[in-house]
Amino acid sequence: MTADIQSTVPVLPSLDLQQTVDFYTNKLGFREAGRYPDYAILVRDGCEIHFWPCDDRRIAENSSCYIRGNTQRLYEDFTSRGLDIKEPAVRPWGMKELYVIDPHGNLLKFGEST
Hints:
The chain is of the alpha/beta class. It is 22% helix and 39% strand. The termini are far apart.
């Protein structure tokens, strides 16, 4: 039996699409998979995130997505690219999580079961 839902794709706000693309490619290791005047698509390791232009920082600062992955390896990769973030930590809900806030305020939570 095949699943009716095959994946989810977060669509996050961006105050500046070029700055978003630069941050996600240079600091997080994503690659640009699609670029349009009012939309950007970034991918890494099977993860896909879309961005739309937004001029209200409060919207971005209240947006987030959860991405499953190897938090320790991601932490090492991100910090080797110059990102200043805290190490992954085990949370009370049984997940080891790594948090990244992009330049516009979007929160990316990377997590894995402990």
